[in-house]
Amino acid sequence: MEEVKKIRTACRSCHGGCGVIAHVKDGKVIKVEGDPNSPISHGTLCSKGLSITQLAYHPDRILYPMKKTDKGWERITWDEALNTIVEKFKKVIAEYGPESIVVGQGTGRDYESHLYRFANLLGTPNVLTAGHMCYVSRVGSTLITCGTLPIADYEGGPKCIVMWACNPQWNNPDEYKGENFWRAYKKGAKLICIDPRKGFIANKADLWLQIRPGTDAALSLGFHHVIIEEELYDREFVEKYINGWDAFKERVIKEYPLERVQEITWVDKDLIRKAARMYATTKPACIHWGVPTEQTINCVNYTRATTGLMAITGNLDAPGGNALFVNPPTRTVAEFSRHRDLSPEQQKKRLGGDQFKLGARVALINPKKAWDAILTGKPYPLKAGILCGSNPVVTRANAKEAYEALKKLEFLTVIDFFMTPTAELADIFLPSGTWLEQNHVADNWKRHGFVLARQKCVQIGECWQDHKIFMELGKRMGQQWWDTVEDALDYLLEPSGLTWEQFKEKGYLQGEMVYYKYKQRGFSTPTKKVELYSTVLEKWGYDPLPKYVEIPESPVSKPDLLKDYPYILNAGLRTPTFFHSANRNIPSLREIRPDPIVEIHPETAKKHNIKDGKWAYIASPRGRIKQRVKLNDNIDPRVVVAEHGWWYPEVKDPGHGWNVSNINILTDNAYETLDPAMGSTNLRVCLCNISPCEE
């Protein structure tokens, strides 16, 4: 019997980065715990991270490559699997061109650099990610506004925190961990919470702004109105570093008086004024924003307006404000991915590139464009695809269309842990390694100033880490790659002077932070200023100034639907147990949350004779699903709040109940509902009705 080995690594059960000590005995991980030496999480670990052994050793996990046959799924070798994919891809390239292959990912397992390198060297511009409505849309919008993504600087000692549409203690999103927010709050920072639902953070907040779902851009402009009207802005910063101030100020004062903002957002104008004053006058102050602000038609407008709030109050790149962190000395994802190797001719073929120009700039496509190309063959057909860690049948808007499109693809490969509803549509299944089974320079795509050593702890079955899958597949396609995963990591780390072997002993690298960098070199925009008037958007033919556009399906925009669909559906309620569509088959997590939950105000439930704890139907113009009712008097009676990501692994038919409780049966992906520059999908807000479910 071996002694227990303790291996320091980094979690990726959700957005990743938390330090972990894995206990390994006899080639098996027997326990994980938080690493107190982690600069990211300081020893804390959430329920998703703690349950990793249940995932890694789950009896339903697929441990070998599989192919679909007339008799069902059959085990095959890696050689057969990879050779089959290469043969199919080469055939599509010969007949239709590489653009007819779609390469897709979900929220990612830190393989983005390798996936994009594979796609770029393959020659396809059609990379399908969640980025158009999650994080990358934030990156793209801030890129053209202030040059990079601003991050709340909790280590810098904020005196005021605006928690906008986010619950970091449950979902630990992107650069953030809930523990960092909580430490800053416990030191006495004032807290403003903007959320349609009164949860834990709203209960702790000095001010809670109960916003109408989807109207965040209008509220941001309302904050601007107060700050401009009362001259609470940093005059020196505005004079030196804002492009388009006069035009922006004129729009805000004329078009967004607090009376109108109150009407749009449902937030009392006096409360808006009080919150804007608190944010503008309490220094330093930071804004921590969440993904609901991106999943609407106002994605770019909100992000640019709120970046403007950080800037005009002097909180941009300031200690305790929203910092522009300095990356560690490693190669960037863009450099590793060889974006420049995708020829201009192929870039021009990117689906939707002429329509969603900001989305094209950050090298991604909108899913609707992919589904249309598969189903209609226009502007050209997509014939084959490879999806890694993605379950679009459950996670993309208008799920029925996603299902039909993927079903129609001539050839599909899925890389995952389990047979999901999406994986069941594939021809080849490749078994992926969990974060316990990979070596990687983790978090190298984030903007928090760190990279972390994720060390391989065990080998389970024949599973390969995603990075190796793309490398080996790429080599068989004739692409230039390294011999091993670790050789590629040496290349990533080269600017630091470290090899992978040296880096994993060190554990992490942090960029040397300097604040107020703009005082020496300005901002990384065409004017070297914060562009509230965007010269880039103007050149592309979009409105250069932020504004609010009414949600495409709301009581205001579609009053004719209110008779049949009188409620606003706020989809995407987060839980501490699930990561989008993942973890429904993890015993300890499913025990905490056995059923999908829809929250309804008691008055609304009484009106429809719906009982607490019973199942209810939720319907929109696109379909009907059911979820279990939880009464909540901390939401507006006009709003219904529901969970996303639901399927039923325990249902053993090929669909695994993907259309029973899947909230994306109800959401829309019509072009008129999408953000015009980024292509962000309006996942969050539509109209619905509710009724008792008698089953």
Shape: globular
State the major sheet. Answer: 7 strands, mixed
By DSSP, the count of extended strands is 27
- By DSSP (H or I, 4+ residues per run), the number of helices equals 27
How helical, in percent, are the residues?
Answer: 25-40%
Structural class: alpha/beta
What is the top-level CATH class of the largest domain?
Alpha Beta
Distance between the termini: 53 Å
Taking strands numbered 1, 2, ... along the chain, how are they ordered across the largest sheet? Answer: 5-4-17-16-15-6-7
Give Rg in angstroms.
24 Å
Please name the CATH topology of the largest domain. Answer: Rossmann fold
User: What is the domain total for the residues?
Assistant: 3
List low-confidence stretches: none
**Arithmetic mean pLDDT:** 97
Q: Which strand-content bin applies to the residues?
A: 15-25%
At CATH's second level, what is the architecture of the largest domain?
3-Layer(aba) Sandwich
What are the defining features of this structure?
695 residues, Dimethylsulfoxide Reductase, domain 2, Rossmann fold, single chain, 27 helices, 3 domains, 6-stranded mixed β-barrel, globular, alpha/beta, Barwin-like endoglucanases, 7-stranded mixed sheet
